[in-house]
Amino acid sequence: MGHILLRHRDEGLENLHQLDVYRANGGYDALKKVLDEYSKDEVITIIRDSNLRGRGGAGFPAGLKWGFIPKVDGDKYVVINTDESETGTFKDRELVERNPHQVIEGALIAAYAIGAKQIYNYFRGEFMSAAFNFEEALQECYAAGLIGENIMGSDFSCDFSCHYGAGAYICGEETALLNSLQGDLGQPWSKPPFPAVEGLYSKPTVVNNTETLANVPPIIMNGADWYKSMGTERSAGIKIVCLSGHINKPGNYEVEMGTSYRDILFDEKYGGGIPNGKKFKALLPSGGSGPVIVDDALDAPMTYEGLTEHGSVMGSASLIVMDETVDMVWAAMKMIHFFRHESCGKCTPCREGVFWMKIVIDRIYNGIGTEKDIKTLESVANQIQGNTLCALGEFAINPALATIRHFPEEYRAKIK
Amino acid sequence: MFETFAALAQGMATSFKHLFMKPVTIQYPEEKRQVHERFKGRHVLNRYDNGLEKCIGCALCAAACPADAIFVEAAENSDDERYSPGERFASTYEINLLRCIFCGYCEDACPTEAITLEHNYELSFYDREGAIYTKDMLIVDVPVNGRSTPQPVEPGAFNRAIPEMEDPK
Amino acid sequence: MSDLVTLTIDGTELSVPKGTRVADAAKSVGIDIPVFCHHPKLEPVGACRMCLVEIGMPMRDRATGEPMLNEDGSPKINFGRGLQTSCTAVVGEGMVVHTDTEAVTDVRGTLLEFQLVNHPLDCPICDKGGECPLQNLVMDHGKMESRVYFEDKRRSDKHVSLGDLIFLDRERCIQCARCIRFQDEVADDRVLQFHNRGVNLEIVTMSDPGFDSYWSGNTTDICPVGALTTADFRFGARPWEMTPSASICSQCAVGCNMTVNTRREARSGGKPVIKRILPRQNEAVNELWLCDKGRFTHDYVASPERLTSPMMRKDGELVAVSWDEALNAAAEGLQAASSVAGLAGQRLSNEDYFMLQKLFRKGLKSGNLDVNNRQIGGGDVVAQVGIAAGSDLQQLGKGDAILVVASDLHEEAPLWWLRVKQAADRGAALVVINGRSTRLSSHATHNLQADSGDIVATVRQLVSMAKVETDGTGALDAAAETLITANNLVAFYGYEGLSYEETESLAKALANLLLIQMDGEPHVGRMNNGLIPVWPYANTQGAWDMGIHPALLPSYKAAKMTGMDAVAMFAGAADGSLDALYVVGADPIGDGWMADRGKLGLLIVQELFMTKTAVTADIIFPAQSWAERDGTFTNGERRVQRYYPAIRPAGDSRPDWQILSQLGERVGAGKAETVTSLVFRSLTKAARQYKGMDYRSLGQVEAQWPVVGGDDRYYGGNAFANTAGLGKQWAAVAESKAVKQFEMDDAVSSREDGLLLINAASLYTAGTLIDKSAVLAPRMAKITLTINPVDATAYEDGDTLMVRTDRVTVQATAVVSDDVMVGTAVLRGVKAMNGTAVARLSKIKE
C-alpha cells in the first residue's frame, strides 16, 4: 500500500509538488467531488464521521471544530497552522515542501465547508525552502483556476495567502498565531472567545494543523468508513511520526494509529533500533512538551489516550529517543532552557515560573544545588500547573516533573 | 570628753575614707564619661569606605519617627554627581533634636544602616533653629582613602536601586 | 427577559447587569478579589492570573435540559477543572463563586511569589512604595519568605526615558500591560508596545518623540507597581508625606476633577509646594483620567515671577505699596474717572466674576463689562437648551448620536474627545462637521468636511433636512436622518474657522436641531440631550452666568442699558473715549488686542504675573492662583464644581474676589465679603440658576462605579477617591418648560477670496501659564501650516514658510495633506483665533 500523506515518497511520484503530477494522480478530484456533489453540511458530516482529530497534538475532532463555525453570512477564515515549532517535529515541513497540493486541497475543502473566502497559511519563519515550494504551488493553482474566483467553474471563490512568523514557539498556539497573523504581538488570548466564534479579525475562524488538512482529500475520496477502518476506535486513521535522537533510522514515517511505541522504535520498517548497540533509556513521545516515558510504557499503543496511564501524551508524535548515555538532568535542563526562551511572557506563572525553574535547574546541573533546590524545582513546577493562560506553561513543567519522577537518583547524584 | 572625741573621729573617718575612694563625679567638660555601647546619642549619617553616603533618601526614618523630628527630601544620583551608590540620595536631611526622643526607631527603619545613634550626648542650643541638625552636621567625615561626595564615577558602576550591603568598591 | 443576572459569591446572592465580569461583580458587594492586570476601564486579558477563583455553574440534564438537583433540593453545581480568572469570566445565571477556599488562597500566595521572582524589591526608594497594589497584595496574601536568591533576579534598565514626561523602570515592571492597553483602548494612541518575550518582555515606545500622547500621565496612575513614573514627581516625595487637596483643572472647559498633592519643600524655604497632580474620580466628568496638560501645568503657581505685592506707578516707576494705599488709590481713580470699563479673563472663579460685576454695576454704576477675547457666542442659547442636568457622556451608546461642529476636541478639550470617541466605539453615531479632518474624524459615522465659510450654512441645511422627511441619499441627508432619529442627541460646537457672529448663529442652528420634535419629544430637557459649547477656557461658562457681558446681567437677564464690549473698550482706550480700564486676569496688550495703553487715564491690572498689560498699568493687584484659594468653576456642561486651597498664597497676594469686594466697599458696593462660601451664597441669590446650591451641597459625594479608594486594589493610593464633591449641574430652561425654535438671521457666507487661513487650536500652545511648565517645555506645539496638495504646488512637506495675514506673521513648517480642503490652510501652534483670514505664503530660502 502506498502512502496516504507522504505520497511523494511513492514510486514515480517524486515530483508530486508539481500541479500536473498531482492532478495526474487524482489530485483535486476530492475538491471537484465536494464542489459537485456535497453541500457544506455534508462535508462537515463526512469529516466528523471519519473521526479525524487534530494532528497538532491537542486531538480536537476536526469535524466538530468546523461545525462550531456559525452558519451565517460574513467573513470567515481558514488558517493553516504550519508554525511547526515543537522540538523534534518536522512532519508539516515535509508535507508543505513535497506534497503542498494535498494541503491546499484540504484547506480549500475546509473553506468550502465553513463558507470561508480566505485561507491563510501561517508558516514558521525559518521554513524558507518549504514556503518557496508552497508559494509556487499556490501560483500554479491560481493559474489553473483552483484558487480565486469561481473555483473549478463553481460559485465557490476563495483566496489563499501565506504569512511568515518570526520564529516563536508560542505562535503555534492558535490564538497567539491569530494575533501574530493580524499583526499584533504573538501572545495567546484567554479563551473564550474561541476562534470559531471570534478569531482572526474577530471573525469566525478555523485553525487546523497542516497534517490534519492533508488528511481531508483522501477521506473525501475514500469515505469516512475507510478512514475509520484504520487505527483504533477513538484514534482513527494514520499519523506521521517524526523520529529523532538515538535511533538508527531517523525521519518521518506514516504510521497507523495504535501501533505500539516499541514497534515504531525497533521495527525495521520504522526506527530500526538504537545505534551502536546502546540500551534504550527514555523517550520523549511529544517533543519537549510531553512528559518523558521509559521502557515500561513502550508497549502502549500510539493513540491520543494511549499514554494516559503512563502520565504522558501522544501530542504531535515527535519521538525523541535517548539512549543510556544521556544525562537526564541535562536533558531536562535543555528543555527548560527552551521553554524559558519561548515563554511569551503574557501570564505570570509561565513567565516567572519557567525562568525560576531555569535558574534552579542550572544550579542543580552545575553541581551547586542542594536537596532543597530539587524540592523547589518540583514545587515551582506544581505551582505553574493549572494556573497558566495557555498550554505552553503546562508543557514547560513536564520536563522537570517527569524526569524527577523517573530519574530521581540522577538528580541526587548532582548534589554534593 | 572621750565620747565627743570618738564621735569626731568617727565623723572624720568617713571623710578620710572618702579621701582615698574613687570619686563619683567627673571633671566635665575636661573629662567625659564613658557611655554604654548601646547608648543612644545624637544621630550620624554614615558613609561607605569609598566615601559614598549610605543614605538613599527613602525617608523611612521620617515615617518611623514617632516625634516627626526628621525631614528628608530625595533627588536622583547621576554618574557625574554621585552621592550614594543607589538610585537616589538625600538632598535634604534634617533632624530637629528638640523633638527627637532618641527612641532609635529611625535606626531600625533604615534599610541601609545609614543612620545610627552614636555616643554624642552634648546637645545644647542657643536657639530653636540651632537644634535642627542638617545633613552637613550629621554626616560623618570622609574615611581615609575615600572621596567626598558628590563624586564622579564610571558610568554603569552603580546600577542598583538599593545597594547591597557590602562596602562598594 | 431581565438584564440582570443573579449569582452567589461566597454565599452572598447578588444581581448584576448581564455581561459584568465576576471580579467587578464581587467588588460591588465588597468582596475583594485581588487583581493586577485587570482594570475596570480596560478590556480584561486574564494575564496576571491573580484573580483566579472557583467558579461553578448549575448542572443541567443533557437530555431534558432540566437543572440537576442535589438530594437536599439545592442545584448541583459543576466547578469544572481548576480555577478560572474572575476578570475574564462573565457572570451567568445561578453561578456560584468561591473566593475564599483553600485552593484560591493558595494560588494567591503562589502567584505573588511568582510576581516577586524578578521584582527588585526596591520599595524603600520606589515612588509607588506606600500606595502600591503589589505591596498591598503581598502584605495581604503573600508568603513572607522568599525562595529566590537575590542574585538570581533578572537585571534590567532602571531609568528608561519614555519620552520626556514618563520614566520606566524595567525591573519593577510586572508586564501586566495596563499601560499598553490604556494607550490602545482608551487613549487610542498606540505608542507603547511590548518588545521581546518571556521574562525579557519589556515596554518600548514606538513614537517619535517617545510616548507621544496627551494621556501619558494616566499610565503612571494605573501602573500597579512603580514601573512608570512621571518626570515631575520622580523621587519627589513619599506618598504618605503629601497632603491631598481636592481641586478642579483650570485649563479647559471640561472641568476635570483632580487631587493636588502638596508637601513642604526645603528649596522653597519650607513652604508647601505642589508635588504632583492626580485625577480625582468623577464618572460624569473625567472618570479616572486627566490629560497631561492638566497634570503638568502647575509650575506657574510656584514661579518666582509671580506678583507678590500691590504696586503703584510713582514718578513713572512701579513700586510696591501697601494694600490699603493701592486700594484707596484705585477706588479714588475709578470714581474720578469719566468713564470706566472692566475686562476679565476666562479662568476666574464664579465668585470673582460675581464680585467684579457687583463692583461695576452696583459700585461704579457702569455696565461696561466684558471678557477678553470672546470667541464663542451662544451662552444665552446654552442656558435654554444646554445638556440636561444629570447627563453623563458615558451613558451614550448604541442608538444615540453626537454631533461635533467646528471644534477639534482632541486639542481643545481632550477629555471630551476621549468620552465622545468612546461613545462612538460603543456604537453611538458620531457626526463631525469641520473645515478639516481632525482626530475625531476617523471615529465618525459621518465626517462632513465643509469650507470654513460654509459651516454654519451646512448646519442650517442639515437642520432643514432634519425637519422634513426626505428621501435624499446625500451624506448630509443621511447625517440628518441619523441625528434626528437618535434616542439621545448631544451637540458640541466650537469656533474653529468661525467668526464670533457665526458661532452665535451656529448655536441657534444647533438649538433648532435639538428642538425638532421626534415622536413629540425634542432632544432637549432630558438626560443626555442638549448642547455643549466647547468654551476656550475653564470658566467661560461662569462668566456668562455671572453677567460678565455688556448686555446681560447675572442669570441672563437683559441689562437695561448695553455697555461697552471688549472691542469698544479697546477702541475707546485708543481714541481716549474710555478713561479708566480695570483688567482682571487678562492681557489684552500681550494678546495683541491693544497696541498699548493708548489714552487711558487709569489702567488697573489684577494679575498673577507681570504681563505686557501689567507693565503699563498704574496700579497692580497681585492675585492668588487657583491652587492657593477656594472657589467654583462652571464647566461646559454647566456643572458647578468646587475647588479647595492647596498651598499658601504667594507673598501678599489675595484672591480676586476679595480684592474686588474690598475695592467695592470703597466705592459703595456694599460691605466687603470675607469668606468665599458667603460670596457664593450671595451669588446664588443673584444668579437664579444657581439657586439651591451651596458649598456644602457642592462638596457632597455619592458612590461611584468603579470603586476606588478604601480597600480598592485597582489603585494603591487614596488620591483617586472623590471625597470632596461631585459638583452640581444647573438646569437649562428646557428642563422645566418648552423652548421655542430660535429665529435665525439671513445666512451670509463669510467666504473671502484667496487662501483662507484657520487658526486652529493645539493643546500645548504657548501661553502665560503653560510656558512655566518645565515638564511640558519639550512638548510645546510646533508651528505648522497644513495645506492641501492642490494649493501646495510650490511647497513640500517640511518647507519653512513665512505666513502673513492681517492678524499674524509667523514662520511655520509646511504639512501637505488632504486633511484640509482646497483653498484652506490650517495654522497650528499659535494662539487659536476666530474666523478666517486671507493668507500670503512665501518660502524661506535655506
CATH class of chain B: Alpha Beta
Q: State the end-to-end distance of chain B.
A: 82 Å
Question: Helices and strands of chain B, in N-to-C order?
Answer: HEHEEHEEH
Strand order of the largest sheet of chain C: 16-15-26-25-24-17-18
Biggest sheet statistics of chain B: 3 strands, antiparallel
CATH architecture of the largest domain in chain C: 3-Layer(aba) Sandwich
Q: Label the overall shape of chain C.
A: globular
Terminal Cα separation of chain C, in Å? 71 Å
Uncertain residue ranges of chain C: none
Number of helices of chain B: 4
The CATH class assignment of the largest domain in chain C is Alpha Beta
Overall geometry of chain B: elongated
Produce the secondary structure layout.
The complex is a heterotrimer of chains A (416), B (169) and C (846).
Chain A: H1 19-24, H2 29-37, H3 40-50, H4 62-67, E1 77-82, H5 91-98, H6 100-114, E2 118-123, H7 128-143, E3 159-164, H8 174-181, E4 205-209, H9 210-214, H10 216-222, H11 224-228, E5 238-245, E6 251-256, H12 261-266, E7 280-288, E8 318-323, H13 328-342, H14 348-365, H15 371-384, H16 391-396, H17 398-406, H18 408-414
Parallel strand pairs in A: 1-2, 1-4, 2-3, 5-8
Antiparallel strand pairs in A: 5-6, 7-8
Chain B: H1 2-20, E1 43-45, H2 60-64, E2 70-76, E3 88-96, H3 105-109, E4 115-117, E5 132-133, H4 135-138
Antiparallel strand pairs in B: 1-4, 2-3, 3-5
Chain C: E1 4-9, E2 12-17, H1 22-28, E3 52-58, E4 77-78, E5 84-85, E6 96-98, H2 102-115, H3 133-141, E7 160-162, E8 166-168, H4 178-186, E9 192-195, E10 202-205, H5 216-222, E11 228-230, E12 243-248, E13 257-265, E14 271-279, H6 292-296, E15 311-314, E16 317-320, H7 323-336, E17 340-344, H8 350-363, E18 369-371, H9 379-385, E19 401-405, H10 409-412, H11 414-425, E20 429-434, E21 446-449, H12 455-467, H13 475-485, E22 489-493, H14 500-515, E23 530-533, H15 540-545, H16 566-575, E24 580-584, E25 602-607, H17 612-615, E26 619-622, E27 631-634, E28 639-643, H18 656-666, H19 676-686, H20 695-698, E29 728-729, E30 756-759, E31 784-787, E32 800-804, E33 809-816, E34 824-828, E35 836-838, E36 840-843
Parallel strand pairs in C: 1-6, 17-18, 17-24, 19-20, 19-22, 20-21, 22-23, 24-25, 25-26, 30-34, 31-33
Antiparallel strand pairs in C: 1-2, 3-4, 3-5, 3-6, 7-8, 8-11, 9-10, 12-13, 13-14, 15-16, 15-26, 27-28, 28-29, 30-35, 31-34, 32-33, 32-36
Helix pairs in contact in C: 2-3, 4-5, 7-18, 8-18, 8-19, 12-13, 12-14
